[in-house]
Amino acid sequence: MAASGTSSPCLCLTHDGSRMNSDMYLNVYVCIQDVFSLFSPRRTDVNSVTNWNAPLVWEGTFDPVVIDAIYKKMDPRVAVVVFAVGKYTRFLKGFLETGEKHFLVDFRVTYYIFTDNEKDVPKVELGKGRKISVVTVPSANRWQDVVLGRMKWATITIDKQIRHEADYLFMMDIDSVFHGRFGAESLSQLSAVLHRGYYKTTREKFPYERRAKSRAYIPLDEGDYYYTAAVWGGYLEDMYKLVRYCYEESEVDAKNGIEAAWQEESHLNKYLLYNKPTKVLSPEYLWSDYDKVPADIKVVRISQLIKDYKEVRPNGGN
Ligand SMILES: CC(=O)N[C@H]1[C@@H](OP(=O)(O)OP(=O)(O)OC[C@H]2O[C@@H](n3ccc(=O)[nH]c3=O)[C@H](O)[C@@H]2O)O[C@H](CO)[C@H](O)[C@@H]1O
Ligand SMILES: [Mn+2]
Fold first, then answer.
1. C-alpha of residue 277 to centroid of ligand 1, in Å
2. Angle at Cα 243 formed by Cα 257 and Cα 203, nearest 5°?
3. What residues form the catalytic site here (predicted)?
4. pTM confidence score
């Protein structure tokens, strides 16, 4: 249901004849959503707002055509940063091909592929305004170094290159496939996805880093949600700040002889506890082929593939 770039869901001029800016569009969008909600029932089985009043996005809580059309007016440039180091290049084809079918269709998207093996980057037919940019990074002997190294190489490359080429940036795992629409409803200053494994559990069960020695430490009585580090996004500069934070905090940990329980995911969760995301995406935005789909997940938009951890990682499983 991709919206056409030329259709206009709302007035584009203000009363004094000047063009509307992006905040105005979003305000109009909120009003339109309110009107729609008079005619169509909202989801009543899930929360659609967080306790700090950020939208919590589920299928059935937004109008896909309207929201795509509003963001399309701004025609943002979206960067997707993915790493495919060692054997993980095998996941590129499925990710890119399905991304072209479902990820921000009709928007300007550049996939930044960080790899140690450029020749294994597949040729994939891309839509108009969509590109691939390959960034060479070193190989690693430990998967933990690849996972954490993402923060270092992304920091350096955003600073040097991507900053000049994108308005929004997503960080994503490569071992996944798109199955459903992932559209402009995902865009915000800072968007984080609820980890499918913990969205129904209480905070003391979240796998936050619990050792006070780590910079990612979160005490048992704190926490809103547990977010996955496999899909997160936002304005370019806000994402730069957060990626760099994860990099610097993991460096401090390394100097103190500790590695956070879930590497950058632990630091990401610490940051988002004290700097609330402006949008939270339901686990529709990252499910897993390992788990059966419960009734509250109406659409699986991306799913993590089942993989043989021992075989695909340079130093074996978890
Ligand atoms: C669904 C989810 O919560 N995913 C998180 C979980 O990942 P996973 O257990 O899914 O880890 P993973 O093996 O997918 O590694 C994360 C990503 O790093 C890249 N990679 C990794 C190893 C390698 O040899 N080559 C390579 O390119 C690749 O993009 C991969 O998708 O835990 C990791 C930290 O432990 C990260 O926080 C992931 O975001
Ligand atoms: Mn993964």
1. 22
2. 75
3. 265
4. 0.90
- Quick one: tokens of 241? 């700040």
Query: Helix 64-74 to helix 22-39 angle, to the nearest 10 degrees?
Result: 170
What does the angle CA 170 – CA 295 – CA 178 come to, to the nearest 5 degrees?
A: 30
Could you state, in order of their start, the residue ranges of all structural domains in the chain? 72-312
Cα distance between residue 184 and residue 165, in whole Å? 19
Q: Judge whether 2 is annotated as a binding position.
A: no
Helices (H), ranges, 75-197 = 92-102, 143-160
What number is the ipTM of this complex?
0.93
Type of residue at 86? G
Q: Is the dihedral of CA 11, 53, 188, 65 positive or negative?
A: negative
Nearest atom of ligand 1 to the alpha carbon of 318: 9
Interval 102-139: pLDDT, tens: 999 999 999 999 999 999 999 999 999 999 999 999 99
Atom 17 in ligand 1: which residue has the minimum CA distance?
Answer: 173
165 is annotated as an active-site residue: no
Residues 6+ positions from 260 with CB-CB distance below 8 Å: 209, 214, 215, 216, 250, 253, 266, 267
Give me the CATH topology for the region 72-312: Spore Coat Polysaccharide Biosynthesis Protein SpsA; Chain A (3.90.550)
Take atom 4 of ligand 1 and give the residue whose Cα is closest.
230
